[in-house]
Specification:
Rossmann fold, single chain, binds 5-amino-5-deoxy-1-O-phosphono-D-mannitol, 27 strands, seven-stranded antiparallel beta sheet, about 600 residues, alpha/beta, Glutamine Phosphoribosylpyrophosphate, subunit 1, domain 1
Length: about 600
């Protein structure tokens, strides 16, 4: 849940690290810090964003060619200057950056306090580095060996980098459960939480595996595991364009990512969907495609927005493949002793591929013999590496904390999986298959059309920017869209919003309706249209204010609603790809008008790598 970056090479380290931290700020942004070696180990850190660290350092010209930095999302200890990383060990001979949680830190802390060590922060990380210092002095061993021994006693998750005042030519890095990538440049090495800080320097990377330790010296690096066995590093090429990490003329990443959707959806279909010839090829799911088609049930595990796309997939799988589907919050699934049988299919959906709960749900299902398929955006991420097979979204990096293009990318890939399975199973006619494939290929154009309503949506946003509550209602395929619309609004504008199946309204939420309550209906023309019309009437009868997302040309709902936003006609199974776009824009504009930081909303981080 934090971002880490480190450098060892022949250039001044500080600017490389600060730049890297800016790229990783999406992972956490409540405090930040840097450690460098200028005659001794030095630490500069500050509560707030990387810009605060930049101000703290000011015009200091550091010459250190080794260093490491951290941008934090607090777990232990409030986000202040003291608890910011890096942390020194007790005698300040070592410093550490850490992404993860040391679960047994309290026991270790007590033991170290009994031995006379003192702590100046509330963090688990300070305990870990002091524990390493203790082992190093007790065993009189190298830092590498002390780290290895310490990690054998650690419960929890970590991606750590350590600097040593007695050896300013070495970084020690290690991971378990939190992501870490090692960049190999020309006479220089990088360590980071993901490849984004590295790609302007090198595209050669090694993805560290769990319980591996990298010992990086100026002229070489080695990898061992915590059993002290030498590992052979596999150097891979990352394909990531620098442009994809920039705002490209937009004010915010979120807006850029919303507007990218015609292209990102096209990318998610490229090389897979051939509508003209009625062909669909999903290269990532081959060996297990028959097992998927023959499965008696499918379990989908995910969190947040990815869970919402799982709900849409449930409707699609059941309708077209006739396979029962359960959509589970990964955080609940992992702790509730679920029934998982050998050969069950589990689909894990995750933008980042790093979400701790989803990862743990996968591990549980795998241990019971389930086949795990991934629907993941970040190539090479932890989830993509533990699944049996899967399909990447190919929608490019999503940097705004609020998920937008990942949601539509997930829907696109999931419908492709569904159509593939339905065809193998014979539960879809060839004409229906082709109809849906053709419809899918038109989605980018339809999204482009919706984006043309941006100014109108901005106008509507202005009318509702001061609302305290919102209700989002939809039925069928549009029910998960209602949930997603409500999540988007609350996470970036801090307005309380609830998503409900429209028919559930009369079982409770209807009590909330009055003339101050904006109710967003996702009311496109589909099999439940008439029912939704009745629900709108129920809201209007109680003086609620209705904002309706309707199919272009609809005349009935515009006559009842206070505001309408039109979207093009679309097959109902694919409508969520289109009907979610106005909701993304509505939340974006309202948040901007309320002065919120849409790319980095308070208390949140892009990937939730702690449970
Ligand atoms: O990376 P993941 O898709 O696994 O992340 C899951 C959720 O944390 C994520 O969708 C979160 O809900 C977003 N902030 C929603 O916009």
């Amino acid at each position: 849940m934090c971002g880490i970056v480190a450098y060892l090479g022949n250039k001044p380290a500080a600017p490389i690290i600060i730049n890297g931290l800016k790229r990783l700020e999406y992972r956490g942004y409540d405090s930040t810090g840097i450690s460098i070696f200028e005659n001794s180990l030095q630490v500069y850190k500050k509560a707030g964003k990387v810009v605060e660290l930049d101000n703290l350092i000011g015009s200091k010209e550091f010459t250190s060619t080794i260093g490491m930095g951290h941008t934090r999302w607090a777990t232990h200890g409030e986000p202040n200057d003291t608890n910011a990383h890096p942390h020194y060990s007790f005698n300040q001979s070592l410093s550490i950056i850490h992404n993860g949680i040391i679960e047994n830190y309290n026991i270790l802390k007590k033991e170290l306090l009994n031995k006379g060590y003192e702590f100046s922060t509330d963090t688990d990380t300070e305990v870990l580095i002091t524990f390493i210092e203790y082992i190093k002095s007790e065993a009189n061993c190298s830092l590498e060996e002390a780290v290895r021994q310490a990690l054998t006693s650690i419960d929890g998750a970590y991606a750590i980098v350590i600097m040593n005042t007695n050896n300013p030519d070495q970084l020690i890095a290690a991971r378990k459960g939190s992501p870490m990538v090692l960049g190999v440049g020309d006479g220089e090495y990088f360590v980071a939480s993901d490849a984004t800080p590295l790609i302007e320097h090198t595209n050669e990377v090694v993805y560290l595996k769990d319980q591996e330790i990298a010992v990086i010296d100026r002229d070489k690096f080695r990898i061992i595991n915590i059993e002290d066995e030498e590992q052979t590093p596999v150097i891979q090429q990352v394909e990531l364009e620098l442009d994809a990490l920039e705002k490209g003329g937009y004010d915010h990443f979120m807006l850029k990512e919303i507007f990218e959707q015609p292209n990102s959806i096209a990318d998610s279909m490229r090389g897979r969907v051939d509508a003209a010839n009625g062909n669909l090829t999903l290269g990532g799911i081959r060996e297990y495609s028959k097992a998927l088609a023959n499965s008696k049930r499918i379990i989908i595990v995910a969190c947040g927005t990815s869970w919402h796309s799982g709900l849409v997939a449930e409707y699609m799988f059941e309708e077209y493949c006739r396979i029962p589907v359960e959509v589970e919050y990964a955080s609940e699934f992992r702790y509730r002793n679920p029934v998982i049988n050998e050969g069950d299919i589990v689909i894990a959906i995750s933008q980042s591929g790093e979400t701790a709960d989803t990862m743990a749900a996968i591990e549980l299902a795998k241990s019971k013999g389930a086949i795990i398929l991934g629907v993941v955006n970040v190539v090479g991420s932890s989830i993509s590496r533990v699944t049996h097979e899967g399909a990447y979204l190919h929608t490019g990096p999503e940097i705004g904390v609020a998920s937008t293009k990942a949601f539509t990318g997930q829907l696109s890939v999931l419908i492709q999986i569904v159509l593939n399975v339905a065809r193998i199973k014979g539960t879809i006619t060839e004409s229906k298959f082709k109809e849906l494939l053709t419809e899918l290929s038109t989605i980018p154009v339809k999204i482009k059309e919706v984006l043309e309503s941006n100014a109108q949506i901005e106008y509507i946003s202005d009318l509702f920017k001061d609302a305290h509550n919102f209700l989002y209602l939809g039925r069928g395929y549009n029910f998960p869209v209602a949930l997603e619309g409500a999540l988007k609004l609350k996470e970036i504008s801090y307005i309380h919003a609830e998503g409900y199946p429209a028919a559930e309204m009369k079982h409770g939420p209807i009590a909330l309706i009055d003339e101050k309550m904006p109710v967003v209906f996702i009311a496109t023309k589909d099999s439940s249209y008439e029912k939704v019309v009745s629900n709108i009437q129920e809201v209007k009868a109680r003086k609620g204010v209705v904002i309706a997302i309707v199919t272009k040309g609809d005349q009935l709902i515009p006559a009842m609603a206070d505001h309408v936003i039109e979207v093009p006609e679309c097959h109902e199974a694919l409508m969520p790809l289109v009907s979610v776009i106005p909701l993304q824009l509505l939340s974006y504009h309202i948040a901007i008008m309320r002065g919120c930081n849409v790319d980095q909303p308070r208390n949140l981080a892009k990937s939730v790598t702690v449970e």
